[in-house]
Amino acid sequence: MSHPSSPPTPGETPPQGRVLLLGYGSDLRGDDALGRLLAQAVAGWPGVRALSVHQLTPELAMDLQDCDCVVFADASASGQQATLEPVSPRTFRPDAHHASPGGLLELGRLLHGQVPEAWLLAMPGEDFSLREGLSLRGETSLSQALELLAAFLRRTS
User: Fold this and answer.
1) I need a surface site. Which of 14, 76, 130, 154 has the fewest CB within 10 A?
2) Stated pTM of the model
3) Per-residue pLDDT tens over the stretch 99-117
4) What letters, b where the CB count within 10 A reaches 16 and e where it falls short, cover 75-87?
5) CATH architecture designation of domain 27-87+96-155
6) Which H, E and C letters describe 64-120, residue by residue?
7) What is the tens place of the pLDDT at every residue in 72-102?
8) Structural contact between residues 137 and 32, judged by C-beta atoms closer than 8 angstroms
């Protein structure tokens, strides 16, 4: 078995479909950077297209048409461990400069007539203050998220 922060090894089959990982958050708010750091860590994994962004913007709905599955990765102010939960389309506000995962899915449905399988990978943090770097809790969550994502990708292959 491969190390969780490395791509699946040649003995492990990559996912059949195309997986888009959208990692988002602020690099300047401590643990809020977890989503972006996860996207950077999995860039180059087979079958995964990873985007590291500050926030979910309406323009990202265009990327949904090219994937079979999307994983939204974000920091969470609650919880004890990283979790992976399904996401459904929700009302999109056209006047918004940023979107929720469900809102982005709904916008993608309106634009493309389809919605990919969607998941939210939530990583608990504890320090969201104006600072760079992760707390110990954030580092643990990132490690858990890498393991969880690797296991998810193996199951979906």
Assistant:
1) 130
2) 0.88
3) 899 999 999 999 999 999 9
4) bbeeeeebbeeeb
5) 3-Layer(aba) Sandwich (3.40)
6) HHHCCEEEEEEEECCCCCCEEEECCCCCCCCCCCCCCHHHHHHHHHHHHCCCCEEEE
7) 999 999 999 999 999 999 988 777 667 899 9
8) no
